[in-house]
Amino acid sequence: MIQKYRYGHPFETEAVFMPVKETLGQPNFLTVSGDKALSFSYHMSPNDIVYGLGEANRGINKRGFRYKSFCSDEPSHSEDKESLYGAHNFLLIKGTITFGLFLDYPGLVTFDIGYTHLNELSIEVPDCNLDLYIITGASLLSIVNQFRKLIGPSYIPPYFAFGFGQSRWGYQNTADIKAVADGYQKHNLPLDMIYLDIDYMDHYKDFTINEERFPNFNDFTAEMKERGIHLIPIIDAGVKIEDGYSIYEEGKASGYFCKKEDGSFFTAGVWPGRTHFPDMLNKEAREWFGSKYEFLTLQGIDGFWNDMNEPAMFYSDEGIKDLLSAVFATDLSTASADDILPIRDKISGLSNRLEDYKLFYHNVNGTPIRHDMIHNLYGYNMTRAAYEGLEKIAPKKRFLLFSRSSYIGMHRYGGIWTGDNSSWWSHLLLNIKMMPSLNMCGFLYSGADLGGFSCNATKDLLLRFLAFGIFTPLMRNHSAIGTRNQECYQFEDCEDFKGLLRLRYRLIPYLYSEFIKAALNNTMLFMPLGFLYEDDPIAAHTEDQLLFADGLMLAPVYEQNAIGRHVYLPEDMLYLKFTSENTYEAVPLTKGHHYIEVSLTEVPVFIRKNHFLLLADAANSTSHIDQTTFTLIGEKDASGTLTLYRDDGFSKDYDSPSHYTTIQLADGSLTSSDPALHIIANLY
Ligand code: GLC
């Protein structure tokens, strides 16, 4: 059951897809207080678990910290960080009372989950206009399912987007891109996508191409596609201020950029230097910006990543003026540390200042709305602009599209990547913990920068990152300029990567099928163990193992120099250890605690009773995966059904019954509803 409580006159965020009638009175379970600002509190029992918050720092269980929903360009995801790039105000409390909660408010929300007082949950909103949804149901899964129906269906990418992608900030020209394709293809390592970071643009101007470094772009994308590689360019939020640059001139002439109170356009410094922010909350401006993606689709591009859309700013005119006046007001001959340190703080605080977010306005149906009040909707609406634009450009085609910043509701338009992580082992663990929370909020097409974005990756870190990444729908190796080269072929004995990458390609038809079913049925691909084994306290408090798809459990190794790890099995399972793309060991294991040895090139997977894993033959490109021949792995005495979804990979007719094949195993014999399907059963 979903109950909606309305306070004041909330801003229409369009997070919710399925209208719900308002319930009058005060919500069950929560104590509400405040008048100009609202505060919701809940007393937690010591063993209550609090799931949720989508793209947030720390654990699967969010207890013991304070989180702030305020989309932030936060390049260092250290443990003390309270905000990351997304704002996903969904909590799921499991315990004495089990319920879900969605707070639909587009500005700052603070979630104090046992931070100030160990057993108190308190949610603070500096405003009295918002919608609160309380969701109850028979199980955690049913609550998530209802929430997902409320916020609408998840974005579905094309089939090729499930391949492996290589990215790096700093690929300067076509030769660099070709070298990446060569590097992978020469070593027989699969690859479907190479990402173009800001370097492909002319002076970092959106919807331009640097023709010196990327001449005849049309021919280049065609040539790369011939080689099975899709090029995926980045699009940034800020539009460079430059006379004669058509996007700037058009935006200026139509008044499509965010304005200050005095009517002038707000200026922020981002990669291109001084920029204006397109007003993504203005419908007309959004349509205009979305239509611009055509410039690249006409040149053979079929995927995009939207970046810097918190929106991120390195500085503003106002911030610089403030800094300079502090500098000039300081007499160096007499200044003490107390005079200089505030200047140092001003310099380090120049980026993404709250004061700057209060300086500009959106034009929402003719009403000016100050940016900080609806801050969390900017990236959401940039990606919506792209999605809706692409829908007009090619209505029948799916494009690859994901964003850095997001709010609940953006999952209908694109996926997300989890931003600028580091080549740290703790960030591999963060990636593992974040996936189920993202799925709860509808973000199914998601993943981290594998290997880590900042800092230097070591080969063992990349191998372990990839061993988890082969299960994340978005599987991309991305790194920052100036860091050690991180493409798989750059490391010694790079054939060590082959087994992992080719195993991903063996998994793709299964992963794709499970993904589409999860999107269409509002279920999750990654789940905390506690979602299935609600009454098993060890399972419910396990933070480093995940349930995956229909009937698998993952237990990735995430520590350097580990030769394996401890695994808890909440029930008997079949343990598979992939030792290469084609070989694996299969051992039935009993419920309880085990230590498994896992070398750097191995992948452990656990199959639950009466469930199966389906593998295709290995291939080096999604377009070469044979979708008619599979190996099914399960236990000897298993009986069960697996529904396999297959389609052409780019159309949108998901509902056609012809896409579904039923594969059934009973009494050791295998049947399938598609006689053309060739399945070899490997039962143990
Ligand atoms: C931002 C993005 C990162 C990208 C860089 C340069 O930091 O998060 O992925 O490589 O900008 O465009």
What are the defining features of this structure?
Immunoglobulin-like; alpha+beta; nine-stranded parallel beta sheet; globular; single chain; 684 residues; binds alpha-D-glucopyranose; six-stranded antiparallel beta sheet; 42 strands; 14 helices; 27% strand
What does this structure look like?
With 684 residues, the protein is of the alpha+beta class. The protein is built from 14 helices and 42 strands. A nine-stranded parallel β-sheet has the order 26-25-23-19-14-13-12-28-27. A six-stranded antiparallel β-sheet has the order 29-30-31-36-33-34. Helix 2 links the parallel strand 12 (164-166) and strand 13 (193-196). Helix 5 (283-291) packs across helix 10 (378-393). The longest helix is centred in the C-terminal third of the chain and has 24 residues, at 498-521. The structure holds alpha-D-glucopyranose (GLC). Alpha-D-glucopyranose (GLC) binds at residues 169, 197-198, 234, 307, 404, 419-420, 478. Alpha-D-glucopyranose (GLC) binds next to loops.
